Structures are given as structure tokens and as C-alpha cells.
Amino acid sequence: MEAEKYEHRKALKSDLSTFWVWLQGQLTEDAKARGALLITELNGLLRDRGEDFSWIEAIRAELLMLPLLPEPALDSQMRRRLDQAQREGTISPERYAEAIKRFFDKDAPASLEVKREGYRALLTELHQYFLNRRFRRDQRSETARVLKWFTIWILVLALLPIVAFSLIEPLTDGWFTPKYLMQSLLFCTAAAGLFGILGAFFSRLVSFQSRLQAFGFEQLLNAFSAQFIVVRCAMGMFGAVIFYFLMRSGLLGGTLFLEELKFEDDSAKFVANFAKLIVWSFIAGWSERLVPETLERTERSAKSSEANKPPAA
């Protein structure tokens, strides 16, 4: 990637250097005298340095050339940049048509100074667009790197309850079975919390993947910073733990939720209960509204029961 960037910068400098050599041949002696400082600065940028060339230096070189451009070259460069701006979507078709009419209308031609000012504004806008796009690309790459490390650690942690549930019996020669784990409040709470974290983090991954191109620099910097991801995962963990206790307490009942099992029940029922625990914990972490809405319904139900309670004799 770095080699490709270097080649791109090298080609950019080559194009600008070639254009500068041509432009110098078009300048009159009077123009050279008036633009002596600009010529010296441009020679320092394009001749006296190495082949590497930053985007900022390219912007500076183009803006320094602007006052030296003869009108035919200025018209050509402006049309090229207007077409580029329209292709990139930085200007609307209406604004493009307005600019063409303003600067190239044969019946009312714009002055050279007006064209130069218009070209300067267009260059500045285009360069700002390309810089912002570059920053967004770099920020997306950095965000993906952060998400990658979070993914590795969260997956490792989320696998721990599954590994424990699957291997506890063979590792203990059968005297400790998964039934003990499912009746352990500590194990179930930890499993709920870990899969709540996984669900919350997965929601961030889906958001990043589905709206990658739409996110601006500020959104990427804030919504996908390490601190924000930790906060979102903490919300998912607490939500999943609360939802688990709602199921365990019986406030959420039915075949869709955890069932009350006895130790002598078939092992398949414990496996099914463990699967429900994982699924509901993941959903509670994923959804930002499931737990709050469930708590609101529980509160309304409690208030309704209290209101319908017969008065004491």
C-alpha cells in the first residue's frame, strides 16, 4: 500500500512538473518579472526536492500557478476541474451549468480576474473534498483495525461458556455435568453478560459495514472510538444480565424463555435452556430497546396489579 501511495505521489509531481515546464514557456518576460516570487517558490517545490510529493504540496503548487496562467490555459484547466467536480459529486448539475454560463458565456465573457478567482475557489473546494475523503478513508481503516482487535477478544470471551458447557463432563470423567452449570447463578450470569457484549458489539459491526460510505469523519471518530465501543458493550452486558434475571425470576415466562428444570430432567432440556440463554442474551445486547421496553411493561403490570389489589379488611 505504501509503495502504491509513493508511486501515486511520484506521478502527481511528474504531471505538475511537466505542466510547469510548459507554462514557463508560455510566459512573457513581463509576466516572468511580475511573477518572480511565484516562479522561485514553484521551482523550489517542483525542481529542488526529491521525487516524493505530498498532497498538500500539490495543492500549494496548483494555487501558486494560478496567477501565472494565461487565459486559454486557465479556461482549459477550469473546464477540466468543473467536469471533475461534477463527476465527484461536489457540485450539483445546476451549479455546474451556472458556472459554465458565468465563466464561458461568449455574449458576456467574464474578466480574467473573475475567472482566476472562480478557479481558485473551485480548486480550494475540490482539494478540501479530496483531503476530507482521504481522512475518512484513513479513519475507516483505523476504525476497522480497532474493530478487528475487539472482535478477536470478544469472540474468545464469548466462547468460554460454550467450551465450559461442552467439555465440563468429559474433563471431569462424568462427575460434574452441564446440569450443575445451568443451575449455577454465577455461570449463567457470566454467560448472559458475555453474550450481551457479543450482541452489542455485533450491532456495531453491522452498522459499520452497512453504512461505511455514509459515515463522515466526525461520526467515525465518535461512534466507533474504543471508548464508545466499550460503553456500548457495557450497555449490552447489563441489559443481557437484567433480561436473564427477568427470565430466571419468572417475570418472563413461556416456552420461548428459560424453563424451570429439575436436576433429574433430561439433559436435552438443559441444552435447550442453555441455547435460549445464549440467544436471548445476544438479542438483549443487540437491541437497545428490548430491555427498557420489557422493564416498562413490567412496571406497568406491577402498577396495575397494585391498583387492582382489594383493600385490606
Poorly predicted tracts of residues: none
Q: Distance N terminus to C terminus?
A: 82 Å
Number of domains: 2
Largest sheet: none
Residue-averaged pLDDT = 84
The secondary structure category is mainly alpha
User: Strand percentage, roughly?
Assistant: under 5%
Order of helices and strands: HHHHHHHHHHHHH
As a whole number of angstroms, the C-alpha radius of gyration is 33 Å
- Helical amount: over 70%
Number of helices: 13
Shape: elongated
Number of strands: 0
Task: Write up what this structure looks like.
The chain folds into two domains: 2-134, no CATH class; 139-301, no CATH class. The chain has 13 helices and no strands. With 313 residues, the protein is an all-alpha fold. Helix 1 (2-26) runs parallel beside helix 4 and helix 11 packs parallel to helix 13 (290-307). Helices cover 78% and strands 0% of the residues. It is elongated.
Brief synopsis:
The protein has helices at residues 2-26, 29-34, 36-46, 55-65, 71-88, 93-104, 112-171, 178-182, 185-210, 217-223, 226-249, 267-286, 290-307. The protein has 313 residues and is an all-alpha fold.
